[in-house]
Amino acid sequence: MIIVLRPNATDEDIQKVIDKLKEFNYGAHISRGETRTVIGAIGEKRMEEKILIMEQIEVFPFVEKVIPILTSYKLTLRDLKPEGTKIYINDIEIGGNTVVIMAGPCAVESKEQLRETAKFVKEKGAKILRGGVFKPRTSPYSFQGLGIDGLKILYEVKEEFQIPVITEIMDPRDLEKALDYIDIVQIGARNMQNFTLLKEVGQIRKPVLLKRGPSATLEEFLFAAEYILLGGNNEVILCERGIRSFSDFSRNTLDLAIVPALKEKTHLPVFVDPSHGTGSYKLVPSMSKAAVACGADGLIIEVHPNPEKALSDGPQSLNFPAFESLMKDLINISKAIGKNI
User: Fold this and answer.
1) Which letter, b or e, does each residue of 125-149 get, where b requires 16 or more Cβ atoms within 10 Å of its Cβ?
2) What's the pLDDT tens digit per position in 63-72?
3) Which of 13, 42, 230, 271 could form a disulfide with 9 if both were Cys (CB 3.0 to 4.6 A apart)?
4) Strand, helix or coil at 65?
């Protein structure tokens, strides 16, 4: 259930609700909004028990209303935070009125390659630099990334250009060492249901970008996010990156309809990855613009100085002129819907 407190509720009032929930072996997830505090009651009870708890909480004068939750996922629901979650990385606001662009190469190949890319994408309006160092590849013979050496390059470039960085973590054993180098942890599509990893990132205090699995339903996607929120990490960004279907003209089917669906159901920011969603640099600009138009809070786009020489995902990476052209269009589309870049 969700307990909405009145605007004048105090910390003592909040504690009274928590203590009452504990009497019924419920956990409490506190969400402080701009005007109200909302408490999510975490636990499974029979309907008659839920009614009894609701009746005992509703009598508190500082409680505005108690809303029963009919879905199995609780912490991701928009009812818990109607104004939406905003995530801050330095002066960058994710989930607000700015469309945030994350851009960079699929894989960190060298310091020179990353420096060149970081300088360019930041100049053109990207707020966050992406770059993979642990690469999940279908073939064991493909380039697997630079690992720790790649993390060090990311950090050096981050410091030089004063731009936050995001990279994917696949193994919980790599998580702790990576936290000193990066600003956002990416959970890739293949690991969306790696529940051990999800629990681990639930314990950290850095934002997590969670990509939708290639065959995941909306509910399964939200359950994965629920694992992270349940651990205490409230800074989760959902990312649509295409699903597997019968389509044979693109790498995946980019399900843009899930963007407004997620925005309706959850308070978490929603991003789109048009690079993996299409697998073709020719399709990335159109899908990027459509994603912004349908309400995405941001994009994560693969950009490489020489895509034809890229060690990973060259066919879906934009070169510098294509990225510059796309950013000009995205600025205009954002303005048309009342947002900024």
Assistant:
1) bbbbbbbbbbbeeeeeeeebbbeee
2) 998 988 777 7
3) 13
4) strand
Contact indicator for 108, 99 with CB cutoff of 8 Å: no
Q: Where are the domains of the chain?
A: 2-70, 87-336
Q: Is the Cβ–Cβ distance between 105 and 160 less than 8 Å?
A: no
Fold that domain 87-336 belongs to in CATH: TIM Barrel (3.20.20)
What three-state secondary structure class fits 132?
Answer: strand
DSSP letter assigned to residue 302: E
Report the topology of domain 2-70.
Alpha-Beta Plaits (3.30.70)
CB 208 within 8 A of CB 228: yes
* pLDDT of res. 45: 66
Asked if 241 and 252 count as a contact pair (C-beta separation under 8 A), the reply is yes
Strands 2-5 and 37-42: antiparallel
- Which tokens sit at 159? 């410091």
What are the percentages of helix, strand and coil residues in the chain, rounded to 5? 40, 20, 40
**Which tens digit of pLDDT belongs to each residue from 15-41?**
999 999 999 888 888 888 777 898 988
Name residues of the chain where pLDDT drops below 50. none
What lies within 8 Å, CB to CB, of 25 at 6+ separation is 43
Q: Provide the residue type at 162 as one letter.
A: Q
